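Troubleshooting log. The previous structure file for this entry was overwritten by mistake, so regenerating from the original sequence record. Sequence copied from the archived sheet and checked twice against the printout by T.R.
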Amino acid sequence: MSTTRDYSSQPEGDLLVDVKWLHKNVEDPKVQIIDCTWKMPNERNPHPRVEWEKNRILNARFFDIDTIATFDEIRKLPHMLPSVELFNKSMNEWGIENDDHVIVYDNSNQFFASARVWWTFRVFGHKKINILAGGVPQWNKVVSELGEPKVTKKKGHVSPYKASFHPELVKDLKEVMNNLETKKYQVIDARSEIRWRGLEKEPREGLRSGHIPNSFNVPFRSLIDKDGQLLPKQDLKGIFEKAGVDVTKPIITSCGSGVSAALLSMALWQLDNKNVSLYDGSWAEWGQETLNTPVHQKKD
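Regenerated output below.
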């Protein structure tokens, strides 16, 4: 079903970058590398930061989506988008400038959290942002073939980072509720089919089972091949269309807590649909037992 993809030339506007391209360009002072590895709370043994300390690409910073984030104290929502001020602060601490070429990756090769961080950079207006195809596993293979590159890059004066917030890329509860009436956007849920149907108890306490009314289900794992690579465009398009999605029309992506939804956004970007926003609260918000949000189930 899948075919070999070549991202090594890094054409303008492409989303994914090949490990061989990074190997050639890792010494460039304007190339900034970020490890975005994240795990569900019950899978953090070891913690992603420990993995980063032991096995990371040269000079990669660690982007912890649980700390470079806003925590909703009222609804107890995890890793919501950080404020502009917090994002600027993090970039300035790392010496990242607005015109730097940022490469994000996962320790695994599943795009699980790197897609979320890619989306976060886009929300804050960063232009040169790519995801490393294959993550650390593919990087280690290239290093074994070509050797470890020597990195001696240094920057001179670093300009302060100034984020530019793009609200059209993110949706909140009120906007998704309004969409039930306007139907301007198609809503796609990245959770597993069994969770979307409401046949399985949600892993987070205090949440109902089911899905947002009229939403489509495209499990994020269905978009990745056996080697952890994003499927070719024609296969991605077929999967979305089989689920009932028109990939040319406006879309809101959703999931359990706003992480894997970004992988749907990433795949749709590959299909040239830039009119895609992400529901940051996702099911961690919509499914709360204390909210009067409508929940549908599909058990047939």
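Confidence is low (pLDDT under 50) at residues 1-12. Archived copy saved in two places this time.
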